[in-house]
Amino acid sequence: MNGAHDLGGQHGLSAINPEPEATEPVFHAEWERRVFALTLAAGMLGRWNIDEARYARERQHPVTYLSNSYYENWLAGLELLLQEKKLLETSANSGLQIPTPTAAAKLLAKGGPTLMQSAKPARFKVGDKVRVKRCYTNFHTRVPRYAQGAVGIIAATRGSHIFADEHSKQHRIAEHLYSVRFQEQALWNRSHDNVEVLIDLWQPYLDCGQ
Amino acid sequence: MTDDHDHSQPPSDLELRVKALESLLVEKGLVNPDTLNSIIDTYEHRVGPRNGAHIVAKAWSDPDFNTWLLADASAAVSSLGYIGRQGEHLQVVANTQDIHNLVVCTLCSCYPWPILGLPPVWYKSAPYRARAVSEPRAVLAEFGTLLPAHTKIQVWDSTAELRYLVLPQRPAGTEGWTELQLQQIVSRNAMIGVELVVATNTPATKSGPVSI
């Protein structure tokens, strides 16, 4: 979706002001620790996946998204998911497995691998010229705005992975994934900075570049 | 909107909102309080960029590991025990004399948790996510990293589930150093690509290596 989260190339955001690495804490307040852990623990109930979680954060009002700190956006996403999945309604949670610390550690170690066989053929190979399709969906997608319409070259084929756009609707469909290399001219109409940007893009986002 | 990402003093209504949510989830039996504490402990104290530094120092010291790491990072890294959530599919990109790599996630905050821990605030901030792809040289300059104009910058926008680690160049003056000595000079920021490793760096982080 064309949300505030899709930040690549946006102007007016000024300096980064990084905290020094040696002194920056992992969490800056106790409530951040709790939001982080609640989000992971609630996610382990299996009622939503990572793409639904991203989509929940993206659907905030743009002003709210950009004004919030990082974990405030996580909190907003968690609250929305709990509401949409009706998890706070009594008896909606019967039969759910609540992970113990040991079970949670196993889930974290296992992670969520996305490699998955696709029956579809790979349309592109390394060196092929591709154009990123225009995309104007109100749903979750992982094709950034700044790359849409741009022509790039397939730099690497990454196998087929669970396709985020469909996964956010709870459909597990594999699509071929590519790292696509873009010259700065193609993205920013400029060529003096000696910069290339590589973006991981699923096959449905791409057309032949000719 | 640009400098409000610290939030070390959140408004009390935010703290109360989080407390209320946690109480509700515990009361309804949806989360186990011990599990919450163990998740926090894992990511605050056990997983961190020392894991990544171990990988980098080993790649600098062991040519076979280096080759393996660049060819199949997931396998090479899991041989050291660093596996888990947000590190399922790893790619390692090597800096050279001619190419400098930089990692960003413009759409959210994708980051290789098992080898670098949780990302710093600046990595998740709007200015970094906006500017890393459009003006990486200016971004690097803000971190004090000035690269020659002939060095090409490759920016990796992690838009899917691949997670990237930059393999910095081994600095001059470290000939004969042990792997353990080398680990001490590898900063987290160098493994994201915003800094170079220099032999005079001091250790930046404190967590010991573990797997998750």
Short description:
The complex is a heterodimer of chains A (210) and B (212). Helix content of chain A is 30%, strand content 18%.
Architecture overview:
The complex is a heterodimer of chains A (210) and B (212). In chain A, helix 1 packs parallel to helix 4 and helix 2 crosses helix 4. Chain A is globular. Chain A contains seven helices and five strands. Chain A is α+β, with helices and mostly antiparallel strands and 210 residues long. Chain A has a five-stranded antiparallel beta sheet. Chain A has two domains: 81 residues, Cyclin A, domain 1, CATH 1.10.472; 80 residues, SH3 type barrels (Roll). Chain B is mainly alpha-helical and 212 residues long. Chain B folds into two domains: 33 residues, no CATH class; 144 residues, Nitrile hydratase alpha /Thiocyanate hydrolase gamma (Nitrile Hydratase, Chain A). In chain B, 44% of the residues lie in helices and 10% in strands. Chain B contains eleven helices and four strands, in the order αααααββααααββαα. In chain B, the strands form two sheets. A two-stranded parallel ribbon of chain B has the order 1-4. A two-stranded parallel ribbon of chain B has the order 2-3. In chain B, helix 3 packs across helix 4, helix 3 crosses helix 10 and helix 8 crosses helix 9. Chain B is globular. Chain B starts with 11 loop residues before the first helix and ends in a 20-residue tail after the last helix. The chains are: A alpha+beta (210), B mainly alpha (212).
